[in-house]
UniProtKB/TrEMBL annotation:
Biased amino acid composition, Polar residues: 15-26
Keywords: Metal-binding, Zinc, Zinc-finger
Tagged with keyword Zinc: yes
Region (Disordered): 1-91
Protein name: 3CxxC-type domain-containing protein
GO molecular function: zinc ion binding
Pfam families on file: Zn_ribbon_3CxxC
Length: 236
C-alpha cells in the first residue's frame, strides 16, 4: 500500500512587537536637586567608536558578577541555570572624595565586602550618572539619569559602603551599570559624607545640584524601585 502524504502545516505569522522609547527619569525627592532652566541631556545612541565610554575611571565591584561579565551576551545554556545579573555596583575608588569631605571630623574605611551583618545605619537616596548598554551591539542604548537609587550603609566597625543600583535597558531589558564621572562623582561624595556626618551628630549642609528634570521616572526599569530602595513616587 502506498504511503499517504500528510498535508503541510501552514506557516505561523508573528505579530511585530514595538516598544516606545524611554523618556528618562524624573528628578525629585529628599536631599535632591534644584531645578533650573538648563537644557536636559538628550538620550542618544552609543556610537561604535566609543566602546570604552561605559567604563568609569573609578574601580567598580559588583554583587554577584563582574563588570566585564555583566554586559556580555548570555552564555550558551549548558544545563545549569545562568547566574542572575547583578542588581547594583559599588565604587570603592570614590572613597578618597568622601574622605576629603569628612575632613578631620570622622575616619571611615570603605567596606567592599558587601554584607548585611553589623549594619549600624542605612539610608536610601539618589545620585546621577550615565548608562551605556552594548548587549545588542555598539548602538544598543545610552541614557543619562538624574535619579539613580543608592543605599548608604554604615557599619559598627567604622566602615561604610554604597550600593548603586542598575537600571534596565529599554531595548534589551537587561540591567546596565552606571558610569559616575565629573560632577556626578562630587554629588556621590557629598551625599555619602552628609549622611555619615548626620549619623554622628555633626552639622553638615544638605547637598544640592542644579539640574533639569529629564523625564518621568520609570519604576519598572529601576533596580532600586524593584528591590524597594528607591524613594521616588511614580506609577510607571
Amino acid at each position: 500500500m502506498a504511503a499517504q502524504a500528510l498535508p503541510n502545516d501552514e506557516p505561523l505569522s508573528l505579530a511585530s512587537l514595538s516598544i516606545s522609547p524611554n523618556t528618562g527619569e524624573e528628578n525629585q525627592a529628599e536631599d535632591t536637586v534644584v531645578e533650573n532652566s538648563e537644557s536636559p541631556r538628550e538620550e542618544e545612541s552609543a556610537s561604535p567608536s566609543s566602546p570604552n565610554e561605559s567604563d568609569g575611571t573609578e574601580k567598580e565591584t559588583q554583587h554577584g558578577n563582574t563588570p566585564e561579565q555583566h554586559n556580555e551576551p548570555d552564555p550558551v545554556t549548558t544545563g545549569k541555570p545562568s547566574p542572575a545579573p547583578p542588581k547594583y555596583s559599588m565604587y570603592p575608588d570614590l572613597h578618597d572624595l568622601v574622605k576629603e569631605r569628612l575632613g578631620d571630623d570622622l575616619e571611615y574605611s570603605f567596606r567592599d565586602h558587601d554584607t548585611g551583618t553589623g549594619i549600624k545605619n542605612e539610608h536610601d537616596t539618589a545620585i546621577m550618572g550615565c548608562f551605556l548598554c552594548y548587549r545588542h551591539g555598539p548602538t544598543c542604548r545610552r541614557w543619562y539619569s538624574n535619579r539613580i537609587a543608592v543605599t548608604i550603609r554604615e557599619y559598627e566597625d567604622d566602615s561604610y559602603n554604597v550600593r548603586v543600583y542598575h537600571q534596565l535597558c529599554l531595548s534589551c531589558w537587561r540591567p546596565a551599570r552606571p558610569t559616575i564621572e565629573g560632577d556626578d562623582k562630587l554629588l556621590y561624595a557629598d551625599r555619602v559624607a552628609y549622611h555619615l556626618k548626620k549619623w554622628n551628630n555633626i552639622h553638615a549642609e544638605q547637598p544640592k545640584r542644579n539640574v533639569e528634570p529629564n523625564g518621568q521616572h520609570k519604576k519598572k526599569l529601576c533596580q532600586g524601585c524593584i528591590n524597594g530602595h528607591c524613594k521616588i513616587k511614580s506609577n510607571n
